[in-house]
Write a structure and sequence with these properties.
single chain, alpha+beta, 60s Ribosomal Protein L30, Chain: A, 5-stranded mixed sheet, YjgF/YER057c/UK114
Length: 156
């Protein structure tokens, strides 16, 4: 199974499609290529026009729902990469990913939320999805999103 097929399978397993427009929320580029490096700006769990997971993890959002948000965020990032390159088979490695989790005061499971995004990268990209990662809890994110993910990809 190709990486592109694994990407579609991951999206379908969640019940979402990333075929249409990937909407951004400001005056910036969602992806910038610098030589063999792609910088993907922060992606929130937006599908179409709707941010599908909002609120603070550990308060309005339980751990499973926050993990879903992380998966959607990283699938959006992969969709942007796929569109830029034509195929995810062009990804050599994901050297780094940052995961921001809107967190209730006593929520400390940011790494467990980030693990869901990491899992998607491994499932879709195999060894190329191995990455360094930072996960942090924050007070607020754009559009009240529960999670925001940014990443860097080395490409052929």
């Amino acid at each position: 199974m190709s990486r592109d097929e694994r990407f579609r399978a991951e999206a379908l397993a969640l019940g979402y499609s990333f075929e249409g427009e990937i909407r951004i929320g400001g005056h910036y580029s969602p992806l910038v290529r610098d030589g063999d490096t792609l910088h993907v700006s922060g992606q929130i769990p937006r599908v179409g026009d709707e941010v599908v997971v909002t609120g603070a993890a550990g308060e309005a959002v339980d751990l499973d729902r926050a993990r879903l948000a992380a998966k959607i965020c990283v699938l959006r990032a992969l969709a942007l990469i796929q569109r830029s390159l034509g195929s995810l088979d062009q990804v050599r490695r994901i050297p780094g990913m940052s995961v921001f989790v809107q967190s209730a005061r006593h929520f400390t499971q940011q790494s467990e939320v980030a693990d869901a995004a990491s899992g998607v990268l491994f499932n879709v990209l195999g060894e190329a999805g191995e990455h360094a990662r930072t996960s942090v809890g924050v007070y607020q994110l754009p559009k009240n999103a529960t999670v925001e993910v940014s990443l860097i990809a080395s490409v052929a």
